[in-house]
Amino acid sequence: MASQANALGAPIERREGRAKVTGDALYATEYAPPGCLYAWPVTATVARGRVTSLDTTTALGLPGVLAVLTPESAPRLAETDDPTLALLQDVRVPHHGWPVALAIAETLEAARAAAQSVHVAYDTEPHASVLDENLADAYRPEEANGGHPADRLRGDPRDAFAAAPVTVDVRYRVPPLHNHPMEPHGATAHWHDGRLTAYDTSQGADMVRAKLAELFELPEERVTVVCEHVGGGFGSKGTPRPHVVLAAMASLHTGRPVKLALSRRLLPELVGHRAPTDHRLRLGCQPDGTLLSVIHEVTTHTSRVKEFVEQAAVPARVMYASPSSLTTHRVAALDVPTPSWMRAPGEAPGMYALESAVDELACALDMDPIELRARNEPGQEPDSGRPFSSRHLVECLREGAERFGWAERDLRPAARRSGAWLLGTGVAAATYPVLVSPCRATVTAHPDGLHVVRVNATDIGTGARTVLAQVAAHALGVGVEAVRTEIGTTGLPRAPLAGGSSGTASWGWAVHEACRSLTRQLQEHSGPLPPDGLTASADTKGSADEESPYARHAFGAHFADVGVDTDTGEVRVRRLLGVYAAGRILNARTARSQFIGGMVMGLGMALTERGSVDPASGAFIGSDLAGYHVPAHADVPAIEAHWIDEEDAHLNPMGSKGIGEIGIVGTAAAIGNAVHHATGVRFRELPLTPDRVHGAL
User: Fold this and answer.
1) N or C terminus: fewer CB in 10 A for the chain?
2) Any residues with CB less than 8 A from the CB of 21 and at least 6 apart, and which?
């Protein structure tokens, strides 16, 4: 590659791409220390109760089986603020799928056979596991995910709604959803000389290290966690999960390395899920579309183990100007696995409901839905009153409309047909907050011209190695080929996790500052560099975490073209288009990949993905990819991702916003709105499967 003094924005290929496609890149369960054993969990088959007996006789008699850990024999763990990791410490069963034992053997097959041979008896208790049946039991939490207040009130929204000339009062539902990354969760753990090394598939090695040190009562410097390559996470690898703790327990018990890879069927009950959400939207406006009242009330579920509240009403606090607003969250504690983050938590389900309701209001007004959104564009963030650091939502809508051919659209629903297919188009807006955390980084200039950047970032498939090299090259004024990036293991400068679309902004800020410091050192240095080179470091604590006087968000617009088969009820998305305002784009190739990936995930949310809890057993059913349907290649149509040039001086030294999640946020609503436009029928529960659609046509 030719030297590029300013590599930011260039569509540079991923540096680890060849290693991944040739198999040279090692993932967590591909490390094979000498003498490595294998572990397989035994999980509860009841929804609530306690284990009364564990018969391991048959399992221990199988060839190659070394041990079966139970609450009686498992290593004791220190108390933790994350009770989902208090594994094998007592006989309680808080939900179906909770680990009750762990088989350890010489081979994977022997460990699995041993786990299947353990006989468990339970004393069961009455349970409740379905949100729809327990809405009345929901309570007001202290806060929702992200530290957001559970409720926010401005003005007099109920009276304003009652007096509004035009209103919609609708209810939308999103089912449980599952992350299902390409690489299931797994870890290889090894105790040696009082130290613990864990190769883990995680979105943040430093968080895993801290938690393992806490649980096993070790100084952090005696714990090493390696997350060099991670095959996706979508939030499910954002915090330490049971697999790495169980692997470490097994290694401690046996004195040998232990590998534990969760089967895909175990993921929904062990690593988190997107909780179901029930939305009530009330919008009231003037006849010209000017909003008078916005009310978004959300009810969701959490487990009895640990509270997690999907912050799905929060986007309504950001999107549209209105003198009166009410946004609330209620949560029912059920006997279910603990929900957690899934790509764009809060924003994905919340914006599906809000943007669908806005489309309903546009229909009630007989108004173009883009014009309705533009008419209610706020001059400042409605909830906080702070000015936006930048907000170009209307520009995204306008450019998307031009690229999509929106002007040719007939407002009338069910007006276009091609044989048995009804055709329609839809639009929705998207938003995601700009998040950033303190980070440390170092950079070393070597005599041979190489610059080595060190930061414990995690590349979960986003191209972090490549983009951080571009950030460094830009700050140093050198070609990107003169920069090497070292990431993915503790011992490197501490870094926050890859999550909340905040990774690149956080890591890049520290890398930029370290490189600027090095540049100053080099300017002051005379003569040849020392053999070990010159090193500069940076710590953005106190700057990256400083409260901003600005409301910082990325925005976007999604457009969908769909066909609905009147014979079968099948919905086919024929085209998806997204336009985003996300600050400075640091790598055009990896950014487009992130936007498109989010849109594909939103397509699955709209049409195919649905987690279901069996009321009798409390189990997630259809929990593998045979029963939980993610989009296949044939489901993905012509798909386009574009962005506008956006300069924002109130973000970070690169001027960038997160892009990993905004692509999913408005996609499901755009598709749902297009289906209404095609059929004239408004569907308010996802996914839009053929049985549901055909039954309503």
Assistant:
1) N
2) none
**Helix (H/G/I), strand (E/B), else coil: 220:** helix
CA 16 to chain centre: 22
CB-count burial class (<10 Å; 0-12, 13-18, 19+) for 225? buried
Which residue ranges of the chain lie beneath pLDDT 50? 1-3, 5
C-alpha 682/C-alpha 79 separation (Å) is 50
Nearest-CA neighbor of 666 among 566, 588, 599? 599
Question: What is the rounded distance in angstroms from the CA atom of residue 158 to the CA atom of residue 312?
Answer: 20
- Write down the H helix ranges in 281-392: 347-365, 369-375
Do the Cβ atoms of 659 and 595 come closer than 8 Å?
yes
Provide the token pair at 436.
């950033």
What is the Cα–Cα distance from 23 to 514, expressed in whole angstroms? 33
- Three-state DSSP at 469 gives helix
Distance of CA 299 to the CA centre of its chain: 20
| Two structure tokens written together for 208 | 């895993």
Residue 517: Cβ-neighbour burial (10 angstroms; 0-12, 13-18, 19+): middle
Which residues on neighbouring strands pair with residue 388, listed in sequence order?
Answer: 551
Chain center to CA of 568: 33
Report CA torsion sign: 286, 292, 295, 296.
positive
**Could you give phi then psi for residue 542, rounded to 5 degrees?**
95, -15
- Angle, CA 315 vertex, CA 299 and CA 558 arms, to 5°: 115
Euclidean distance between CA atoms 312 and 434, whole angstroms: 17
Give the separation between CA 652 and CA 534, rounded to whole angstroms. 25
Paired tokens of 101: 């034992």
Q: Which residues are catalytic?
A: 661
Cβ density class 235-247: b for 16+ within 10 Å, e for less: bbbbbbbbbbbbb
Strands (E), 458-552: 483-486, 534-539
Residue corresponding to tokens 């007006």: 415
What is the number of other CB atoms lying within 10 angstroms of the CB of residue 3? 11
Buried b (16+ CB within 10 A) or exposed e, 440-463: bbbbbbbeeeebbbbbbbbbbbbb
Residue 122 in contact with residue 72, Cβ under 8 Å?
Answer: no
What is the three-class DSSP state of 112?
A: helix
- Cα(276)–Cα(273) distance, integer angstroms: 9
Q: How many CB atoms lie within 10 A of CB 688?
A: 21
Q: What six digits make up the tokens of 560?
A: 């969908």
- What pairing do the DSSP bridges indicate for beta strands 440-445 and 534-539? antiparallel
- Among residues 295, 315, 353, which one has the least CA distance to residue 551? 315
Q: Where are the alpha helices (DSSP H) in 48-107?
A: 57-60
Q: How many CB atoms lie within 10 A of CB 140?
A: 11
CA quadruple 388, 393, 395, 399: dihedral, nearest 10: 160
Return d(Cα 603, Cα 607) in angstroms, integer: 6
Of 372, 429, 376, which Cα lies nearest the Cα of 400? 429
CA-to-CA dists, residue 694 to 174, 365, 564, 567, 608, angstroms: 19, 28, 9, 8, 15
Among 629, 597, 605, smallest CA distance to 174 is for: 605
Tell me the one-letter amino acid at 395.
Answer: E
Cis peptide before 549 (omega within 30 of 0): no
> Which ranges of 501-567 would DSSP assign to H, the alpha helix?
503-524
> Which pLDDT score, from 0 to 100, does residue 6 have?
56
Structure token digits, residue 405: 């051919």
